[in-house]
Amino acid sequence: MKFVDSASIFVQAGEGGRGCVSFRREKFVPKGGPDGGDGGDGGNVWLRTNSHLTTLLDFKYRKKYLAPRGSHGQGSRKSGRKGADIYIDVPCGTLVRNAATQEVLADLTGEGEEVMIARGGHGGRGNQHFATSTNQAPRRSEPGWKGEELLLDMELKLMADVGLVGFPNAGKSTLISVLSAARPKIADYPFTTLVPNLGIVRYEEYKSFVMADIPGIIEGAAEGRGLGLQFLRHIERTKILAVLVSADSEDPEAEYNMLLGELEKFGRGLNEKPRILVVTKMDIAPEDFTLPSPGDGVHVLAISSVAGKGLKELKDELWREVSMRDRPEESPLPECDGDAVTP
Ligand SMILES: Nc1nc2c(ncn2[C@@H]2O[C@H](COP(=O)(O)OP(=O)(O)OP(=O)(O)O)[C@@H](O)[C@H]2O)c(=O)[nH]1
Ligand SMILES: [Mg+2]
Prior knowledge:
By secondary structure, the chain is α/β, with parallel strands linked by helices. It has two domains: about 1-155, Distorted Sandwich (Spo0b-associated Gtp-binding Protein, Chain: A); about 160-325, P-loop containing nucleotide triphosphate hydrolases (Rossmann fold, 3-Layer(aba) Sandwich). The protein is built from five helices and 14 strands. Strands 10-11-9-12-13-14 form a six-stranded mixed sheet, with helices on both faces. A five-stranded mixed sheet has the order 3-1-8-5-6, with no helix packed on it. Strands 4-2-7 form a three-stranded mixed sheet, with no helix packed on it. A hairpin with a 5-residue loop joins strand 5 (about 95-100) and strand 6. The two termini are about 20 Å apart. Guanosine-5'-triphosphate binds near residues 166, 170, 188, 280 and 283.
């Protein structure tokens, strides 16, 4: 499933520096000619892709990007310095539109692509350019030109890196709500989640990954029971699945195996996808609770979203898995696709 992440920012290129009005003044040269230098051009604003970025999240915090102006011209024909260009890093796959016209200005897909999105204003000419045969002492110069400014709408199609799979009530939505800014509905009845939710999980300063919370899976899902099946497709291209089982489940291991069975019946590689087992609600685990051991080298993590336990370890583990894997290829849809569901 593709999710769309979007952000709007304001960019303004630098204004050009003012041209200078000045006359040569030297000893023994009573009436020197005009020597006012030109203003420097304003800085340009560029967008460039950075493959370390995966979301537009940073633009939720900073929305204004201004390039510096050019400096003013000076006497002795000294031109002003050009304002420095600024570069705004965006993730690969960012589509950029002019917010006012919705015209597509850039479609930045590849690594290291850059595009100038707002041009700095020209510097104004100094009075040295305005001397004529009849006016040898022009007092005229130009102001700097304004830099371009515009509002940009940016859009990024996101793919989930991590898919959460579990029975209804396993705590999937609660987990995504504590790890990301997503605020899905949470309730103590099954099938609270009816459509997938997406959350961007921040990891350390510049890293993040995308998590998808889908409706709960129940036994027989692969035959169309419940809601989960139609959404399993949305986690097909995730890099890893986190299978969630609640610590207050009657038999966590059996629950895990049943979920796996449903993934296997659904097919399309879901059961072969890397996965971890996450035991949730450890704060209400029975006293004699022992962690299930799924075998197959599958890691088991114990967490409590409510008590905030084990979340750091979970993020570490997920990041490790997500960052070392490529996204699986899209597999062709089966001839008769099983979207018809009877809840
Ligand atoms: N004690 C405790 N309760 C939790 C924890 N995580 C979730 N819950 C509770 O479990 C119930 C179900 O949580 P949800 O996050 O809605 O579960 P879900 O897996 O998204 O459920 P569906 O959307 O129905 O599939 C809610 O009442 C939550 O408050 C936890 O760590 N500890
Ligand atoms: Mg839910």
